[in-house]
Write a structure and sequence with these properties.
Helices cover 31% and strands 19% of the residues. The chain is of the alpha/beta class. A hairpin with a 4-residue loop joins strand 10 and strand 11. The structure holds heme C (4 copies).
Length: 392
């Protein structure tokens, strides 16, 4: 589970000297996220990409509370989703989960600033989010005491505080941030991947892993006698072996229910479209039907149900026939005949062929599969091997 542990030793600067020295070695863990972009959890399409998710973050922190303490939990910003009805639900759910996890600081960056204030501001208040931002509605810095450390966590590159551990949160790119001097720790939410911390003159630069696929864990060890600071950085890659925190899980389930309501309310009329559904194909192609039933394609919707996602538009496009297209899948009540990845998901709409079966179906190429078997959703996809497994 642990990987990429990096050690960086920096000679202690005057600024890191605390006013009162309690012990010769002092330690603090900084747990950070950034650029989550509304990704509450991974889709779970493949074990190869099934990493991250707020319920696992919370589960990991709870499970390891003792070894992590004292710790601060920071989001460097750009946590929100797009400004769509579903995106807004995600953003609100993200904030709720921050609340449950007790984030110490949440920075508001470009994505948050592009949302209407009358949407975001009430949520920040309702969930009592310790937000910092450049805009006048919030403070730009928070001062905290954690363990033996006095922390200045800020979004303002001009707000350096003598005698404190200074942490700057920004969504500017690494190329610009490298030029800033004097900061102990800078955490980016630019979406850049820094496999290892970047060392600057007197400190280090980190970057929140895009879409929360990994949790950043930085341990700061200050040795007063040896006059040095040791930074130990680890990416926690939270896969299927990490247990969800039940409280955050509950919030995600509420989100799933709200998404379901959202999509059922957007249904207007059902048109008789180009798709006919598998039972019609079976009338003449029963042997093909028999072999299809044995493939994963026939279970694609129940895979979603098992995760409470059977009404999530972001999942249905690949787990049904023609979702979002004219006459395609809407939901299981309205269009039960178009559930799962049926014949027409590969062969194309069949109504014309039904009227005159000498009319050919769409040709199938690798691209037909790649619409759904993307590198993200199906990292092991190999056309030849996968074709073999669905042969009929
Ligand atoms: C771009 C297409 C696409 C989207 C969108 C998509 N999936 Fe998938 N999903 C796939 C493919 C392809 C597979 C099969 C992957 C493989 O076996 O290589 C899959 C497999 C799965 C599985 C089965 C995993 C297993 O181990 O058996 C689950 C569960 C799943 N998806 C859930 C979801 C959820 C939840 C969402 C929405 C959040 C979603 N999918 C969105 C394409 C998609
Ligand atoms: C409309 C989207 C879609 C298309 C098009 C599609 N697939 Fe899939 N495929 C899926 C989904 C979703 C799953 C996962 C089903 C599940 O287990 O829930 C899947 C699973 C599979 C699996 C099973 C993996 C396993 O062992 O369980 C194979 C093999 C496969 N697809 C091959 C193909 C091939 C080959 C093509 C192209 C000829 C193709 N698929 C086209 C969505 C699609
Ligand atoms: C995952 C994609 C996929 C699904 C789902 C699928 N097929 Fe196919 N089908 C193929 C591919 C690939 C071929 C290989 C032939 C080709 O090059 O077109 C094929 C071939 C065929 C052929 C032609 C065989 C031949 O000898 O030319 C028929 C008929 C057919 N499929 C019917 C069906 C029916 C009926 C269903 C639903 C029960 C179905 N298919 C589901 C991908 C799919
Ligand atoms: C009324 C009977 C009938 C129905 C219903 C029917 N087919 Fe066919 N289909 C045929 C016949 C007969 C052929 C062979 C045509 C030929 O060789 O000219 C054929 C050929 C095909 C082929 C291979 C030729 C090609 O164009 O690629 C595919 C694929 C296919 N059908 C898929 C489907 C699918 C998918 C459905 C459901 C949407 C479906 N068929 C419904 C009778 C039917």
């Amino acid at each position: 589970m642990k990987l990429f542990t990096t050690y960086i030793v920096i000679l202690l600067q005057a600024i890191l000297f605390p006013a009162i020295i309690n012990a010769s070695e002092q330690s603090l863990t900084i747990i950070y996220t950034g650029a989550m972009e509304g990704e509450l959890e991974p889709c779970g399409c493949s074990p190869g990409t099934d990493f991250g998710g707020v319920a696992r973050f919370a589960g990991y922190i709870k499970e390891n509370k003792e070894t992590l303490s004292p710790y601060v939990l920071i989001d460097a910003g750009n946590f929100s989703a797009k400004d769509t009805p579903q995106g807004r639900l995600k953003t609100e759910t993200m904030l709720k989960s921050f609340k449950v996890m007790n984030y110490d600081v949440v920075a508001l960056m470009g994505r948050e600033e592009s949302l209407p204030e009358q949407f975001l501001l009430p949520l920040i208040e309702r969930y009592k989010i310790p937000a910092i931002s450049d805009s006048s509605s919030y403070g730009s810095a928070l001062h905290l005491k954690r363990g033996d450390f006095e922390l200045n966590i800020t979004v303002d590159p001009g707000d350096y505080q003598e005698g404190m551990l200074n942490i700057l949160l920004t969504d500017r790119p690494l190329s610009e941030v490298r030029l800033l001097e004097g900061w102990d720790i800078v955490i980016l939410s630019s979406g850049e991947i820094l496999e290892e911390p970047v060392r600057t003159g007197g400190g280090i630069i980190l970057s929140g892993y895009p879409k929360g696929k990994r949790l950043g864990v930085l341990t700061v060890k200050r040795d007063i006698r040896e006059k040095r600071v040791v930074y130990q950085h680890t990416w926690q890659r939270l896969g299927r072996d990490v247990k969800d925190d039940p409280d955050v899980r509950k919030i995600i389930e509420e989100y799933n229910t709200s998404v379901g309501r959202l999509s059922s309310s957007s249904i207007t009329t059902l048109t008789e479209g180009p798709y006919v559904g598998i039972s019609r194909c079976a009338e003449c192609h029963q042997p093909y039907m028999d072999s299809w039933v044995k493939t994963g394609h026939a279970r694609a919707l129940s895979s979603l149900s098992q995760k409470g996602k059977q009404r999530d538009p972001e999942c249905l496009s690949c787990h049904t026939v023609g979702f979002g297209k004219e006459g395609g899948f809407v939901n299981i009540e309205a269009t039960p005949d178009l559930a799962n990845v049926q014949c027409e998901a590969c062969h194309g709409p069949g109504r014309a062929h039904l009227q005159d079966y000498s009319r050919p179906m769409s040709p199938i190429t690798k691209d037909t599969c790649m619409k759904c078997h993307t590198p993200q959703n199906s990292p092991d996809f190999n056309y030849r091997k996968y074709l073999e497994r669905i042969k009929h």
